[in-house]
Each structure stands twice: as structure tokens, then as C-alpha cells.
Amino acid sequence: MSQTVSQKILAEHAGLKSIEPGEIVKANIDIAMAPDLTAVIAYQAMKEMGVKKVWDKSKVVFLNDHIAPATNIQNATLHKQCREIAKEEDFTFFYDINAGVCHQVLPEKGHVWPGMLLVGADSHTCTHGAFGAFATGVGSTDMGAALATGKLWFKVPETIRVEVNGVLPKWVAPKDVVLKSAKEIGADGATYMAIEYGGEAIRSMSMAGRMTICNMAIEMGGKTGIVEPDRITDTFLKGRVRNKYKIIKSDPNAEYAKRLDIDASALEPQVACPHAVDNVKDVTKVVGTKVDQVFIGSCTNGRLEDLEEAAKILKGKRISRDVRLMVTPSSFEVYDAANAMGIIKVFMDAGGVVCNPSCGACFGGNNGVIAPGEVSLSTSNRNFRGRQGSTEGYVYLCSPATAAASALAGVISDPREVK
Amino acid sequence: MKIKGKAWNYGDNINTDFMLPGKYLELTDNKELAKHAMEGIDPTFAKKVQKGDIIVGGKNMGLGSSREHAPLALLHSGVGAVVAESFARIFYRNSFNVGLAAIECPGISKVKTGDEVEIDTIAGTITINSKEKLAIKPLPDFMVQLLNEGGLVPYLKTHMKEW
């Protein structure tokens, strides 16, 4: 029977030959990841279940990343508890505030590979589908059960296939592809489904771009985003992943719940307007909207390729004096590489504030929150009312290039028009 | 299971930032979380809510983050159940895992804030103002079991061997 890559991965981890969408299966987990804000609650849930130790100390990854470094006693205490748990359990891997955002650190450090089943106590765990993994976000109690037993129940998802063909024009980015699919699919159009991306534009895309696209599957309700692995995947993972892996792909005649075609060549830079991720417009429709803060970073768009794009636009220029530019590389590896390439200096010379890796700015935690009435233009993934600070603020989402062009002008701008 | 209370209707796309804003994610005490329930969309909700009240919404209830703080804040503020036309996946799972009923009910979005809502999970109905009845989507057996046992933690305490 023909199956999608998501069905095959879940079937293999459930010890079954094949499974049907809608079926509920119990599956073995390869890696369970939990960041500071949810890890402690998950661990406590495990203890309350009557279990003393995690099921496998080499398969659990905790990180202090969401508010890093600590900004008050409460989150400092959470960080301390995470460190204590990691020490007491003797976790093989633990990443403190000097590593980066969980969804960037996991693949960098070799915890993600094709065909694996990964759960994370963070909704953007779907990012790792970029590597051909089945990766999904869970709450703390589910994570507690995973820590306790190494197993969780899953409803086998149907799959939406998104074909992205053609070549992305200059200054049009993977972020624009995923914003366009959010517009077409809608904020609940993929609820309980996997979103599988393919087509020549995806095949020629770097891992950074594929991660940007899979990262936002959850914004359409998706259980995971997924891209079939290929040579680009292998090249990224070489020297990082310690175990052998198997390349799993969808069968050519696999059944999809829905198909969507995106012509990359005809795509314009996209902007998601307040207060919904699917309220997406071509940049030309919102050019001129005044912005107070521009944020480049997050698990969506804080990778080296993203910073490079933004720096190309900002090089040798100054941002508008009415704008604050916050730049947060996604990890210390990214930060270090960007620094070596002179990119960090470009941001600083342009008048930007370069922050340490942390999730804070994306969800109103730290590293730049907005005041009532202020407008944020952000390369992150959510623009819900109140997401980045005041509930009377406004958040727009865009690509790093659009963010950089807009920082220069102080208003939303088309990166294709920058001279 | 029967749950009866006053409805609070907040419409479509009630996200987890509305239920519990990100700045409170560092809280670990349920009583503290409860003080900020629904603060992102209704800052006075925690003061107004009565035990057993029911949050009502349209489509895609609970979209957004995986924060379990959201259903926990609702549960401990006194909310008896959440009813919507449809739910986002992680919030749906999290609700049952913490022992909060999340019930899909086509037609529920017409209920107004202040209406009296009675849920009967066994009969599979919701009665509005003791008059009109709506049919709820049947709950999967596993979800019913989770609710009866008080959530995933107590469930696993007794069923660890079968897991």
C-alpha cells in the first residue's frame, strides 16, 4: 500500500508495516526535547506518574533558551532547576544559555536525522521535519509521559502536499513561500495534518530555508512540516549526526488529503499583517506602514543565511532613527560564523542591537518587547495580538530581507526596491 | 459527565497567548497562573469567572503554542470545560492531559456570553438556556477515560504497565 513519508516513519516507530491516517498508534520516541519554560513542569509530571528516572538519559535533551540569560528570579529559578535535573539525571546532553534556540541547536548538535521520531515541548518542533524527520510539538504532560516511558500515542495524520516549483526571484525568500502557503491553507487548514513540501524550489533550497518553511507548519495547525531528505540534508548532517540513518520518502502514488501548487518564480515578498498569521499580503500592498521595532531572528529566521541576506541590504547604511533594530542569531554557532564573516559588524554599524541567542523577542519574553501602540516588524512566526509585548501593539511578519529594507526606511519596504 | 455553567464566548481563533500571555510562562504555581487566565483577550476574566463556567469559541480554539500553562490557567481559574466548533491539536491534547474537557460542538459559536450551557457527555448533548439542544462530537474512548481519571498523570500512575 502506498504511504506518505509521515505514515512510514510513524509505522516504523510503532512496530507496524503500514498505518492509515486517523489510526491511533503508540510509537517509540528517538529524542525528547524540552526547553526551560516547559522542561521543569514536564519532569515534575514524570515524577508524579511515579517514575524516578527518565527512560533513556542519552535521548533526552533539555535547554535553557527561551528567556536567556535569566531576567528575573522566577526564570532564573527555572534555569537552575533545569541544570539540577540535568546533573542529577546525568543527561548525556544539556545545553545552557550559551548554546542557542532549541530548534537551531538540535540539528547543529546532531540530535536530528531523517526518519526519526522527535517530540519537543515546544510547538515549533515541526521545524525538524526539514530533515525528513517526523517532529511534533507536545505539551508538558505528554512530555512527562515521553520522559517516563519513551513512548507516546499519535493520531496518524493525513498529509497536504505543497509543490513549490520555479525559481525564487532575487530578494524573495523561503519565508515568503511559507507565508504564501499560510495564506492559501489558512490558520486552521492543516489541523492534525502533516504538510509535506516538495518541488524544484524546495529541492534547491538550503537546510536553513527548509527549516524556515517547516517551522511554520504549526501556524496552519499542522502536526509537522516535512521535506524528503536528499544530498543537501546529508551534507548538513555530515560530521554532526553520530548514528546511521535511513532515507525515507513518500511513495510516488501516496494519497494526499489536498495538494497546493506555488509558483516560486511569480512570488513577491509577503507580509503577514496583524493579528493573524494567515492575514498575508504582497509587500507592495503594505509598503509605507510605519514601524517602531524590527526584529531579525527566532527559530524561523535567525540562521546564518538569514543574517547574510539582511546584512547585504544593510551594509554601509544606517537604519532610520525612528526604528530600533534587534538582531538575535539563533545559536552561538550562527553568532560565531556571522561574526567571523563581518556580518555582526554590519548590523552594529547600521545602528542595530545584536542580542545573544534566545527565544525572548519572538514571544515578548526578553530582548525587545513593544509598548502600547507600537508596531513590530518581525521575522518570527506569530503575530497574535499581544505576542511581543503590549496587547495594544501590532506585529507584522516578513522575511529577513524585507525586515532589513524596512529598518532602513522606518516603514515597511520592498527589499527589491532598495538602492 | 455533566458540566453546567455560564458561557464566555470569545469567538474564532482564541490562541494560547490570549489564554496565558508569554510573560507568565515562568510561573509554575497553578493558583498564580489562574490569576492571568484569558488575560490576553479579557484582562478582568479571572476576577469575573465563576466555578463551572464554560469557555465557548468558534473555529481553531487554542491555536499557537504548546504551553500547557494555557489549559492549566483556565482549569484552575474555575473553568469547567472549553467548547468550540473546532480545536487546534496541541491545545486539545493538553486539555485532556490536565483533566479539562475540550468538546467539539458544531453550532456552539452562536452561544452568547452569559447564556447558560449544560454539557452532558454521556447523552452527547449541550443544552443552551434550558431550551435548545446541540449534539456534540462523540469523545474518543481514551479521552473519556483521561477525563474520568483526572488527566494523564493519574492515568499513567495506574496504567503504566499497559502504556
Characterize the structure shown.
The complex is a heterodimer of chains A (419) and B (163). Chain A has 419 residues and is of the alpha/beta class. Chain A starts with a helix and ends in a 10-residue tail after the last helix. Chain A has 2 domains: 5-262, 2-Layer Sandwich (Aconitase, domain 3), CATH 3.30.499; 271-417, Aconitase, domain 3 (2-Layer Sandwich). Chain A contains 16 helices and 18 strands. In chain A, helix 2 packs across helix 3 (73-89), helix 6 (174-185) packs parallel to helix 8 and helix 12 (304-314) packs parallel to helix 16 (400-409). By secondary structure, chain B is an alpha/beta fold. Chain B has a single domain, classed as Aconitase, domain 4 (Alpha-Beta Barrel), CATH 3.20.19. Chain B is 30% helix and 20% strand. Chain B has 7 helices and 7 strands. Chain B has helices at residues 16-19, 30-34, 45-48, 69-77, 89-98, 141-149, 152-159, and strands at 2-9, 54-57, 81-84, 101-104, 116-120, 125-128, 132-135. Chain B starts with a strand and ends with a helix. The interface between A and B is large, with 51 and 40 residues.
Q: Name the poorly predicted regions of chain B.
A: none
End-to-end distance of chain A, in Å? 55 Å
The helix/strand series of chain B, from N terminus to C terminus, equals EHHHEHEHEEEEHH
The whole-number mean of residue pLDDT values of chain B reads 96
Report on the biggest sheet of chain B. Answer: 7 strands, mixed
The strand line-up of the biggest sheet of chain B is 4-3-2-1-5-6-7
Low-confidence regions of chain A: none
The Cα radius of gyration of chain A reads: 20 Å
